Amino acid sequence: LHPDMQVADQALKDFVSNIDKSLVCFYKEQPIGFLALKAISPQSQFVYLAAVESEYRATGAALSLYAKATLLSKDEGFSQLKGRISSKNTAVINLYSYLGATFSTPLDTFLLEV
After folding, report:
1. What is the pTM of this model?
2. What is the dihedral of CA 55, 59, 61, 63, to 10 degrees?
3. Residue 76: which residues within 8 A CB-CB, separation 6 or more?
4. The pLDDT value given to residue 66
5. Could you give the percent of the chain with pLDDT greater than 90?
């Protein structure tokens, strides 16, 4: 089964068009991670998507991205920064906990290659 590239292109364009702002973390002028934000209410921004390249995960890149997102959200008048994570992602749970986050309704996503 081969994906329809026109459908894939449109899905990607739709996804990207929903992002209000993005942050990028660089190491030696190379991007190593990003975080995308979307306002979901006058009080809340949502971490739409975030990732750090695996070899840079122990460098504090994610902490820098989330700390900056928190500061930006506060500066822009938002009182909440929300996100969605799997309860199996202990690294991100630890990061959110370090930043003082609270958790409700953890969501586990399972993928099965067939």
Report:
1. 0.79
2. 130
3. 45
4. 93
5. 54
